């Protein structure tokens, strides 16, 4: 069987880390970015100092601002912020000229207006493509350095699923597979909201006991809402559920944890987001998850609390006190 050709859409930290994984396996990888200045810096300096400082990019990684250079590849790893995914996918469909690639969503989020998952956004804008998703405890900086990691790939097409998994064979990234596209994406999206809560806990100096309790209850809430939204319960006990939840709640390199940490220390959301070069997906996802829980009648006190803080309707300290004062109940 011929080796499938590959492109990466998104030249941020995650997209670049994925391109590095593929390039280190001997592949030539075009990587698309929307900003000509950033793309030219990647091309000339062979570094992505904005997102992954200090890491050399091999010559086999080829930065471009032309989607057409990527759209004709067999597999496209799509790693753009959720708010841009619809537009970029639509442009990809136009640039493909009838080609039917496998699109792998590496973006974690839930559309606010309709509650669509990222694979559903892609399907709406590129209906001819075969869709897959990738998620897990994947801090881009570590993967870019070649530190061992693992994740899970989801796809309804068994052949495409096997083909995408094989991309990672021989790399420092161990790829598992699943047919639960919804559960994989919901775990990857919802954990960002709980990471903000964990960061707030740290920012308030609440201690390790409180944080352990918060993360444990986060998993219960993730599973409760995730299954109501169509994910399988067992998926939330895997890499894209508890695995991703742990790393984002406990790592200071997590963007979402950093947002919560700084909120807990008294900074405003506006000043925090203005100072960040990368998108903290938990901020828009909190509103999406809050809306989804309301539509489905699912109890989600942590998501509700994070959304309330992000909307500026209460202070982090007051919300933590409100959570501790909730009616006593059995663990579930």
Brief characterization of the structure:
The protein is 51% helix and 14% strand.
* Number of β-strand runs: 10
Spell the H/E element sequence: EHEHEEEHEHEHEHEHEHHHHHHHH
Main sheet: strands, sense, barrel: 8 strands, mixed
> Which geometry do the CA atoms define?
globular
Name the beta content range.
5-15%
Task: Provide the gyration radius in Å.
Answer: 19 Å
Number of domains: 2
**Helix/strand/pairing category:** alpha/beta
Uncertain spans:
none
- Termini separation comes to 49 Å
How are strands sequenced across the largest beta sheet? 5-2-1-6-7-8-9-10
Please state the second-level CATH architecture of the largest domain. 3-Layer(aba) Sandwich
Enter the CATH topology name of the largest domain: Rossmann fold
How much helical structure, as a percent, in the residues? 40-55%
Count of DSSP H/I helices: 15
The CATH class of the largest domain is Alpha Beta
Seen as an oligomer or otherwise, the chain set is: single chain
By CATH, the superfamily of the largest domain comes out as NAD(P)-binding Rossmann-like Domain
Would you mind describing this structure in some detail?
This protein has 332 residues and is of the alpha/beta class. It folds into 2 domains: 6-179, NAD(P)-binding Rossmann-like Domain (Rossmann fold, 3-Layer(aba) Sandwich), CATH 3.40.50.720; 186-324, N-(1-d-carboxylethyl)-l-norvaline Dehydrogenase, domain 2. It has helices at residues 13-23, 36-45, 68-71, 82-96, 118-125, 140-144, 158-167, 181-203, 208-228, 239-250, 255-264, 269-274, 282-296, 301-310, 316-324; strands at 6-9, 29-32, 47-48, 52-56, 61-64, 75-78, 102-105, 130-135, 149-155, 173-178. The strands form 2 sheets. Strands 5-2-1-6-7-8-9-10 form an 8-stranded mixed beta sheet, sandwiched between helices. Strand 7 (102-105), helix 5 (118-125) and strand 8 form a beta-alpha-beta unit. Helix 8 (181-203) runs parallel beside helix 10 (239-250), helix 8 packs across helix 14 (301-310) and helix 9 packs antiparallel against helix 10 (239-250). It is globular, with a radius of gyration of 19 Å. The relative contact order is 0.11.
């Amino acid at each position: 069987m011929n080796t499938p050709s590959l492109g990466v859409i998104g030249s941020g930290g995650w997209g670049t880390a994925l391109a590095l994984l593929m390039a280190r396996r001997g592949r030539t990888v075009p990587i698309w970015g929307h900003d000509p200045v950033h793309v030219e810096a990647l091309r000339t300096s062979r570094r992505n100092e904005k997102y992954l400082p200090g890491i050399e990019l091999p010559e086999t990684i080829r930065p471009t601002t032309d989607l057409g250079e990527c759209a004709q590849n067999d597999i496209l790893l799509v790693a753009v912020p959720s708010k841009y995914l619809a537009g970029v996918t639509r442009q990809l469909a136009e640039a493909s000229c009838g080609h039917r690639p496998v699109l792998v969503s590496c973006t974690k989020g839930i559309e606010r207006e309709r509650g669509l998952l990222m694979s559903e956004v892609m399907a709406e804008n590129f209906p001819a493509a075969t869709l897959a998703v990738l998620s897990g405890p994947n801090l881009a900086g570590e993967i870019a350095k070649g530190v061992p990691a693992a994740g899970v790939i989801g796809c309804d097409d068994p052949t495409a699923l096997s083909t995408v998994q094989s991309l990672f064979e021989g790399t420092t990234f161990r790829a598992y597979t699943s047919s639960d596209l919804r559960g994989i994406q919901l775990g990857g999206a919802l954990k960002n909201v709980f990471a903000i809560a964990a960061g707030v806990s740290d920012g308030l100096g609440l201690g390790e006991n409180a944080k352990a309790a918060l993360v444990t209850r986060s998993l219960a809430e993730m599973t409760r809402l995730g299954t109501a939204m169509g994910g399988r319960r067992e998926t939330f006990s895997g890499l894209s559920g508890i695995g991703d939840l742990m790393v984002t709640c406990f790592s200071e390199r997590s963007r979402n944890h950093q947002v919560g940490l700084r909120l807990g220390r008294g900074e405003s959301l506006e000043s925090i987001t203005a100072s960040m070069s990368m998108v903290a997906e938990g901020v828009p996802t909190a509103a999406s998850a809050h809306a989804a829980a309301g539509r489905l009648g699912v109890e989600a006190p942590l998501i509700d609390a994070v959304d309330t803080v992000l909307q500026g309707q209460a202070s982090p300290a007051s919300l933590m006190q409100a959570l501790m004062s909730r009616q006593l109940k059995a663990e579930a």
